[in-house]
Amino acid sequence: MKLSELLAGHDHEILRGDPETAITAGICFDAHRVAPGSLFIAVPGHREGGPGAAGPALARGAVAVLVDAGAPDLPASVWTDTDVCVVRVRDTRTTAAVVASRYYGEPGRGMDMVAVTGTNGKTSVSYMVESVLRIAERATVGVIGTAGSRIGDELIPMPRSVLTTPESPDLQYLLGYMRDRDVGTVVLEATSMGLLTHRVDHSYIDIGIFTNLTQDHLDDHGTMENYRDAKLRLFQGLCRRAVVNVDDPVGAGIGALMPGAVTTYALDAEADYRATDLTMDAFGTRFTLHHEGRKYPAAIPVPGRFSVANALATVAACHLLGHDLRGLVGALDRMPPVPGRFERFETPRGTSVIVDYAHSPDSLDKVLSTIRGFARGRIITVFGCGGDRDITKRARMGEIAGTHSDLCVLTSDNPRDEDPGAILDQITPGITATGTPFERLADRRRAIGFALSAAEPEDIVLIAGKGSEPYQIVGEKLLPFSDMATVRELSGRGTGG
User: Fold this and answer.
1) Superfamily assignment of 106-332 in CATH?
2) Which of 71, 421, 426, 481 would disulfide-bridge 67, Cβ 3.0–4.6 Å?
3) Among residues of the chain, what percentage have pLDDT more than 70?
4) Separation between Cα atoms, residue 460 and residue 487, nearest integer Å
5) pTM for this prediction
């Protein structure tokens, strides 16, 4: 496709070269991913790109470069290469979403698009949407999120990345890939930073789901108000309809942003989809779903009020897309476990182990409160906090773990560039205040081993923070590490237990 076609109707200025240049090899932010015929977008501050990487991008065969106000700082080779077209735009990220969507044929228009945002529940709701549609209607569903991108059980190969919401060129590529394989519905996790940096723009979202807003990511946003506003971008022109949790005060306010286009769900407040009569045990939750004056008996194979809320969001969104409500509700109790979300395992000694992604104060509190509701023995909690992230939540998480647990094991999560010991130092005051005994073992494998060895048959070991992540981020490295695989190995059951 010609560069002029990609930019048609979008403010831009040709600094040099021919705008009729054909883009034949995709769109890149990362210089090392450029191939001959690519469009390189020089996003300021991008780790693998930016204006300073324009030279390497040209050396690898880029035929055009998009820049914004940083254009005068481009390497000299950009101005001396007679074949390259250089275009200045107001903002490279917003332009990237436009041109990437056009390059791949605006693939979001050809599928039912569901985007899930909120502090907690994004991954669980994504898996639930996929599961109920597969079970109820044998639908082909694409999923884009924390665990990567896939169609059913087919993982889509992509460059290694820790971004839950891919950059716009990658996202549009994935949507095009899914459309070309006859995917009917795509569900994607829309993170606050993904929304703030325009990665989801021009994806033609049919339904935006809002789960909740609690403290997290203040390292990125500075204040809860900024964090909230980033989430709310989804409901300010990026989706046609919304499904929102009105038990959450932020969710309750979304109706004012999208008058007449909001469907509500709740456990406590009045809502279009509501749950009552919750009964819970270690293996799941039963409840009654209310909609338009009718009652539907329902069950999910996960304990907890938060899981019921996620189920309501799932059913509401899928019903809005035109799927039969009774079939959707019937599919709920046949859903497979969501990897790393209240994922259960029993050791040969009879100890229950739960692996969960809980990595914020609210999510850790909810998971531990749920476990306390059915635990017959002690609760042993293994957890840490991520490095280079909001430090204000660390002592609070220590307090929550100590309040709900009988023994805690403090360990590394993803330390990134921080000293693991310093992170544990910041967690310690919170747990010390509760009087709960604890151990400090920065090595996560040793910490899990200690917890398993300390547990008696009726105890429950919660391993929180990383869920199904297959790596641990130490410095700039992604080191292979899986909480559940480690549990299986240390319990003597390998991967097949």
Assistant:
1) Mur-like, catalytic domain (3.40.1190.10)
2) 71
3) 96
4) 13
5) 0.89
